[in-house]
Amino acid sequence: MKYKITLLVVLFLFSxxxxxxxxxxxxxxxxxxxxxxxxxxxxxILFKVGSQNDPTGKEGLAALTAALIAEGSTxxxxxxxxxxxxxxxxxxxxxxxxxxxxxIYGRTHIDNLEEFYxxxxxxxxxxxxxxxxxxxxxxxxxxxxEKTLRYSDDEELGKExxxxxxxxxxxxxxxxxxxxxxxxxxxxxxxxxxxKKYFNRNNVIIGLGGGYxxxxxxxxxxxxxxxxxxxxxxxxxxxVKPINGFEVLIVEKDANATAISFGFPIDVIRGRRxxxxxxxxxxxxxxxRNSSSHLYQVIREARGLNYGDYSYIEHFPHGGQRQxxxxxxxxxxxxxxxxxxxxxxxxxxxxxxxxxxELQKLVDNGMSEEEFELTRKFLKNYVLHYAPxxxxxxxxxxxxxxxxxxxxxxxxxxDYMDHITRDEVNETIRxxxxxxxxxxxxxxxxxxxxxxxLVNNTSSPIKYQTPKPQSILEEDEEIANYPxxxxxxxxxxxxxxxxxx
Amino acid sequence: MKPTxxxxxxxxxxxVILAGNQPKKIFPFSxxxxxxxxxxxxxxxxxxGSGLIAYYSVVRTGSRDExxxxxxxxxxxxxxxxxxxxKKYPGPVYDRMVTEMGADANAYxxxxxxxxxMVAPSEYLERIMELESDRFQxxxxxxxxxxxxxxxxxxxxxKGRVNPFSVLFEELQNTAFEKHxxxxxxxxxxxxIKDMPNQYQYSLSFFNRYYRPExxxxxxxxxxxxxxxxxxxxxxxxxxxxxxxxxxxxxxPPQTKERVKEVKYNGKTLPILWIGYKGPAFDPGNxxxxxxxxxxxxxxGETSEIYKKLVIREQKIQFIGAxxxxxxxxxxxxxxxxIKKESDIDxxxxxxxxxxxxxxxxxxxxxxLEKLKKRVKYSFLMNLETPDDIAGNLARFAAVTGGIEDLDxxxxxxxxxxxxxxxxxxxxxxxxxxxxxIILKGEK
Lengths: 501, 444
Known about the structure:
Oligomer: heterodimer
Distance between the termini of chain B: 32 Å
CATH architecture of the largest domain in chain A: 2-Layer Sandwich
Largest sheet of chain A: 6 strands, mixed
CATH topology of the largest domain in chain B: Cytochrome Bc1 Complex, Chain A, domain 1
Number of strands of chain A: 11
Radius of gyration of chain A: 24 Å
Helix content of chain B: 40-55%
Helix content of chain A: 40-55%
Number of helices of chain B: 16
Low-confidence stretches of chain A: 1-25
């Protein structure tokens, strides 16, 4: 508890650092990434406002506002005209919203810089917020919530439900898109007010990368200084409710396989030495979509139960569609998370136990010298893949500002791989990871039956179609009987129709 | 438009811009081709600066080559087995060596090819070549490992099955094709996936027939010395024995009547309308094929009339689009839309028909065509930023045509496409009797 309070103080000071940067600067804040031979220019215009700033009852407002900026008309041009203008340039303007930030981004060839910049400036500074655009974007969001997320991607559904479950009662709680009722509740006037309140020069950082000239930088700075002054979007970091033992949420649907996610908040963020030590442990346990992941080896490789199994110490949205971490989803509060890709329904409890048992082994035993050396070496080179393009490097540079990192997170990452010791990693594991207080989400069928098995600590033996080595069978016995201490009042069942309602 | 198609188009325009009337150099990077006596081919494309290399091994075998009954999905399954290692470097050792390099290594399977790709620091070129050439020549796995991997493949099928598009594609291909192996999707029929654990012996024969030097193309891009790479290729791939056995694929008989099917999706989704017109095999020398590439974007892309009308103004659909993907054999030209209300399905279908008629009866404006060509050019220029981008964008062209030499030919075709060619492509391929219409509806 004492540690938690210290952490909150640190986080508060850190958040002040981030936001005070802007207040000290008279004009807009710029992050530049000149790349001499790059024939393209990348823009990432980051507003320090995100879904945590959504008003109660209007959850999803930040996301809807950003979508309407990127996919709507300006005061001078209709959305149709904007699309026509960008088309020959093969460029587009997109938006991304996370808890703490909104990014409007786009990239163009230097030949088209003038034309593209003119459109981008208009889109960001002079949105029209027309009723017809609003209806189109709002309907798309509702369809995503009501249909796509609930029915066509159980893995993403499980992860989003877990995020709401872990951050319940904090401004991080609701998913960025909001809930069906809250999105329905949002009016065009709400969008206009939100834009007016937060999309101001005190909340913006202009990220510019590629082969631009210094004259161009001056122009951009001058132009965006025309944004009105306004209030800061700063709010306190989320205070996450402590988890009491195992808390389980079962989303019931007619699923032919079970998606499982579990996790808990962790008080460690980029830039601190602890983060990089924990990154080594996490990479060994569950490097995203990589066969080096230990969970992958145990559940998929040795047993063939699913497509993959991974773990995270930072937010990693839409993992099914990307290989490397995205930029500009930086947060002051992270969670540790395990993602078990869909397993056959008969193996759901077994797979959950298997992953939990591996987490316990890591916490209790730490990493061996061999595991540590291999992972350290791996990560030192693997992070080179995180930001291969100017656009991604620019995104990372903006995140460096958020986290108050002097220099570069990726450079720091590589440097630390030469200095962090195994003892340090194992100490960090014990400090941040645990296996007693965890929130778990299952997306599955036969929810009552699963609840019964969970609360009764029912053994979950597994049978394979094909023979397995004796060592695996012996280990299976241990996994199947891995003790679960879950109280009935800590298991809730909801229908998929209730999710995000 | 798919990135692969875009790159073809842009490459053409680049040629004109960079070379003028000189002997045309299309590709902005110089490359060298290595061809060994066993039929193995490699394209070496040095690009300085990143400190990385991209290493793409393209096997010209995909789900198209699964011609034997009950064996659908095997090319994809085999992609999984390739990570099980050899006697010299068993799976765990292979994994460990890849991990030590910090490589980004993965693979994917398509209808026409299977691609194994790795991006790693340049210093590891020889190690990568040793590892990759070894598993392509000496793959070894026992029956237990084979059966375990079958479980992972079934897991992948289950994972995808919740997506309405997976359900739709399965029905589309099954309905559009009667004889040709394009009848099944790349992951295969579920009944065949279930039976995979019993096909160990067949898997060995699959490897022996298809994983041969004549059927594999290597593309290396990034920071490396060409001379050194050439030496290494001879050393590591030179002793690979040829022995490719072509698949016995039955050609698809001509379609004479429109096929329409309604599919139910066990979940909620907006209705999806998908129309697959029978298209041509990819042929870089064919003018109509080039016209078709541009036509799909002109007719159904984001600046098309139908897009503006149905997506932006009337807001009756969430999206609309069309694709023509280069394939080795004649496959489909896809036109698709996600519709907001079931009651609008017929209306949207009629709008698509009207669009087709318009392009068949009226010439597209030169201005529109030029805008598209400009788009293609800049899309290309902006998509060759990393070694991985370059190799990744060439993989399908190499797989479908057998190399990258015909880029010149194809890009010349694209650049010379006229409004008349667009019209001819619309008349020849947007034929009602040669199309399959799938309407997917979710639960109420």
